[in-house]
Amino acid sequence: MELWGATALTWSHIVSPSLHLSQPLSMRESRRFRIWCGSDQIQKANQMTVSVTGATGFIGRRLVQRLLADNHSVRILTRSRSKAELIFPVKDFPEIKIAEEPGWKDCIQGSTGVVNLAGFPISTRWSSDIKKEIKQSRIRVTSKVVDLINNAPYDIQPKVLVSATAVGYYGTSETEVFDEQSPSGNDYLAEVCREWEATALTVNTDVRLTLVRIGVVLGKEGGALAKMTPLFMMFAGGPLGSGKQWFSWIHLDDIVNLIYEALSNPSYKGVINGTAPNPVRLAELCDQLGNILGRPSWLPVPDFALKAVLGEGACVVLEGQRVLPARAKELGFQFKYPYVKDALKAILSQKVLI
């Protein structure tokens, strides 16, 4: 943290009237004291109060941990207090405030920012009812959050909304390259993302809005990798479908850092792709995973088998898309894991935190 601004603070602004010094400080000691006290004030000024939907999910859990590690206040907006308390037990997380829907209003009012991550998982077999829930769960929560922000008195209204969306916005292709300027696709997931984003865009114009289009998140605690790793360990791993489809991924730490930056950095606004700068074809991902685990990647999962398990949802994996984080790079965001090999090595050497 830069402390140069602290030296401009006067003694009267820093020292509490109740503080008594036994003897005068030398000029060098005085300057050091001013910097120490000033940095404490700066730290307090930079502390955020963040309300989070989807906090019990794969990304949300790690984001909450990151916010708490930096001494920010966290308010969890949930539909199930009991589920939230299982993941964030009061004895281990006494500083967290957990609220079910009737209490969301009080949490959002007075928050510095809101992160909206809630939504029914898409990695399941799609039926007409499931497809309806996938869309409505996202729109319903986003609409409620936006309404609560818009109706908050100005002096206690959040200043930023970071709302998740997905790279499904772009549709699928084995040949095209997508960035934030690319048009939307025309399949079901693209439709979900368009409506999801349109709902977030109704937030008041004086609230900074960042829409993070998230790719496939890699981490040990959940997501795609948690489902793939056991197959490889049983010598049953391999590419899904042709293996030629693009896989736009991001390490869990990087997506959390991107969301964190979007909360605190006023330059982060509009659409930002939450993907690593080096997407890979699925066959390469499986080869890298097999090499790191010491298991072969020779047994492809045929299209019909995947469709039998996931139904229409198999299109997400079987068709793929190549999405680049052009905006994040423009903003100077530093990816901790730009290459999938390094990401996989780091993940598979981790211990599960929650």
Automatic annotation (TrEMBL):
It comes from the Eukaryota. InterPro entries: DUF1731, Epimerase_deHydtase, NAD(P)-bd_dom_sf, SDR39U1. Residues 51-267 form the NAD-dependent epimerase/dehydratase domain. Residues 301-347 form the DUF1731 domain. PANTHER family: EPIMERASE FAMILY PROTEIN SDR39U1, SUGAR NUCLEOTIDE EPIMERASE RELATED. NCBIfam families: yfcH (TIGR01777). This is Epimerase family protein SDR39U1-like, chloroplastic.
